[in-house]
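Why do we care about 3D structure at all? Because function follows from shape, and shape follows, mostly, from sequence. That is the central idea of this module. The next example makes it concrete: a single protein chain, its amino acid sequence, and then its structure expressed as C-alpha cells.
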Amino acid sequence: YLTHGLRRTADKGNDFSRLRTFYRWGVARQHMDFDPELLRVLRAVTAAGNAKGHHVRFRDTVKGPFSPDELLLISNAINEGRGTDEDRAIVMLHLELGHNPNASARLRNKDLIRYETEAGISYHLGIPRVKKRTALRETKQRPISRKLGQLLENLRTGAADDALLHWLSA
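And the structure:
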C-alpha cells in the first residue's frame, strides 16, 4: 500500500493523504511498526489533490456550468415567480454567489445584513467559510441583489442564531 501511495499520489480519493494521516496516528501512539523517520519522509512528499474543475473546463452537460439558454430559462422562471419562495431563494443565492452548498446550510439569520442609505436599501450576506478548520465561525461579506435580500428577509424566522434557510434543516 505504501508503494502504491508513493507512486500514485494524485489518485482520486487522495489515498496518499489518508496513508500519511494513518501513519502519523501510528507514530503518535508509539506503535513499534511505525518509524518516525519514515513519517518525516512522508510529510516531505507533496501529494497532488483530486482533479478540480474538469466538469467546468470540459463543459459537462450534467455536472458542468449552465448553458446561456439554461441561464435564461432559470432567470425567466425567477422573474415570473415560479416555484416556491424557498426554492427561488436557494436558486437565486447560488446563481448570484456560486458558493459551496454547505455554506448555504450554515447561514444564520444574523448573516443577512440590510443597509439603508440615502441611495437606497442594499443587502449583504455573511457567507460562512466552510473549508477553514478553525474553532471560530468565519464569514465573508458578499453583496446580494435587493430582490434576493428582500426575499430572504421575508423568509427569515426565529432568533439571530437560527438558520436563515430554516426549511433546509426540517
